[in-house]
Design a protein that fits this description.
The complex is a heterodimer of chains A (about 260) and B (about 190).
Chain A lengths: L2 H12 L5 H13 L1 H18 L9 H10 L22 H7 L10 H19 L6 E2 L3 H8 L18 E10 L2 E10 L2 E9 L9 E5 L2 E8 L2 E7 L3 H20 L1
Antiparallel strand pairs in A: 1-2, 2-3, 3-4, 4-7, 5-6, 6-7
Helix pairs in contact in A: 1-2, 1-3, 2-3
Chain B lengths: L12 H9 L3 H12 L2 H17 L9 H22 L36 H9 L3 H12 L4 H8 L3 H26 L2
Helix pairs in contact in B: 2-3, 2-4, 3-4, 4-7, 6-8, 7-8
The chains are: A alpha+beta (about 260), B mainly alpha (about 190).
């Protein structure tokens, strides 16, 4: 094999794209040719420097919003909607709620139903896709500023480790076709996702617990924001989480 | 806009598209920035790419959606450049059409056995060096080094044979290394 051939093939070797036969030939040439071996080392060095640099751009929040709005909304209640979440046998939100023995006295508005569905989907996605947090920190002073500039509404961030709910980070998520902040807490081995959504202008959300598809959802509103907590911890613990969160958020505001 | 952007009638198509395509937004935007340069042009191209991808979502066969989205983005960027080329020419835009064959793969003297060690640059400098490469080389560098696509996937995105991808990548790295060493010289005290 000539140096000219190796000049090109050493890149395929470097990228792990060379079949075993050619790889052996290139390696044999490299063993006897310090010039080509030097090049391989130089390119490997450059690859390492590229990999260790931050070369990506982050899409502006405004662009994300525009695309979200330009795409058609998700189907409101369609079983196939969660076909993506393999391994979970889902019915509709409604049948899930009925199966859990919840009698719905009041027919909720479309928006609420959409949000419950989105909140559960987002919770599941966060557990499956190994994308629980964009910013991982138990320090509220790290997590809170991370949201600045990424969202219209920065969520209040409080650490509740002393109260038994450990803050592990935050991330951006999508609820009701809008980018929202999600705070992630842990209670023992259980994850709690807390989604913070701009309150709807029309009706004020009354604090309420429900069980949907085996998950507990607790929602409340405060200071123009709606909070949706979802987890597989039991309903009472989730309610306790709400109380601790509200108390700490009030204290942080007053401080 | 014509073409069914209103309701999600066929059983969760919009939801599926959102789940698959929206997590790639930063990747698509990054490629657009490298292909087009300006943030405003990248914004427009990415939005157009998502709408186009949604309209043609039934042609997506998998397995990986990233190369499929990138190929669409590349077409959108190509049209955008063709439009701006039809408009009055900004100076220096022809640099993108550099003749591949004219660029040597390795341009340091062959009799120099010592290979200079690259100085570490900060991310901004490296970003600038990559962005300054002629287009055909810039795109393979971004697809390989930033997006970590395989040669096969890169070939699908740029619509060229795998062999061409390999030789283009070899030239692209040679160019980048040259520019890198040149930048070293400038930064040296």
């Amino acid at each position: 094999m000539t140096c000219d051939e190796v000049d090109v093939l050493l890149h395929a070797l470097l990228d792990g794209e060379l079949d075993a036969g050619h790889a052996r030939e290139v390696e044999a040439h490299l063993a006897g040719c310090p010039g080509c071996a030097g090049k391989l080392a130089a390119y490997r060095d450059m690859r390492g420097a590229l990999a260790g640099s931050e070369l990506r751009f982050r899409a502006p929040a405004d662009l994300r919003r525009r695309i979200e709005l330009a795409l058609p909304p998700r189907a409101a209640v369609a079983p196939s909607r969660r076909a993506l979440l393999k391994g979970f046998a889902f019915g509709s939100v409604l049948s899930g709620a009925l199966a859990a023995g919840l009698v719905m006295v009041v027919v909720r508005g479309d928006r609420d139903q959409r949000i419950v569905g989105d909140v559960i989907s987002a919770h599941l996605r966060s557990l499956q896709a190994e994308h629980l947090t964009d910013v991982q920190s138990s320090n509220q002073h790290t997590v809170k500023p991370w949201f600045n500039g990424r969202l219209d509404v920065a969520p209040p961030v409080v650490d509740l480790t002393a109260q038994g709910f450990t803050l592990i980070g935050g991330r951006l998520d999508y609820i009701d076709a809008k980018a929202v902040g999600a705070l992630v807490y842990k209670r023992r081995a259980h994850v709690i996702n807390l989604f913070v959504v701009q309150a709807s202008a029309i009706d004020r959300l009354v604090a309420k617990s429900e069980t949907v598809q085996g998950f507990n959802v607790r929602r409340w509103s405060s200071g123009g924001l709606e909070f949706w907590a979802v987890s597989d911890i039991n309903g009472e613990e989730l309610q306790e989480f709400e109380q601790k969160f509200q108390a700490a958020a009030r204290a942080a505001e007053g401080a | 806009m014509a073409g069914g952007m209103h309701a999600d009638q066929d059983g969760g198509r919009a939801g599926r598209f959102r789940d698959l395509a929206l997590p790639l937004l930063d990747d698509v935007y990054t490629l657009a920035r490298y292909l087009l340069g300006s943030a405003a042009d990248a914004d427009d191209a990415v939005q157009e790419c998502y709408l186009r991808a949604y309209r043609h979502f039934d042609t997506y066969r998998g397995p990986h959606i990233k190369p499929w989205m990138f190929a669409i983005l590349r077409n959108v960027c190509h049209s955008a450049r063709a439009r701006s080329a039809a408009a009055p020419q900004p100076a220096g835009s022809m640099a993108d059409d550099a003749d591949e064959a004219a660029i040597p793969v390795w341009s340091e003297p062959a009799e120099t056995p010592e290979i200079a060690v690259l100085r570490r640059h900060d991310s901004d400098t490296i970003q600038r060096l990559v962005a300054a490469l002629p287009l055909p080389f810039r795109e393979v560098i971004v697809l390989r080094e930033i997006d970590d696509l395989s040669y096969r996937e890169i070939a699908d995105v740029v619509g060229a044979p795998v062999g061409t991808v390999m030789s283009r990548l070899a030239r692209a790295r040679a160019l980048l290394r040259q520019a890198w060493l040149a930048a070293d010289g400038k930064e040296q005290p």
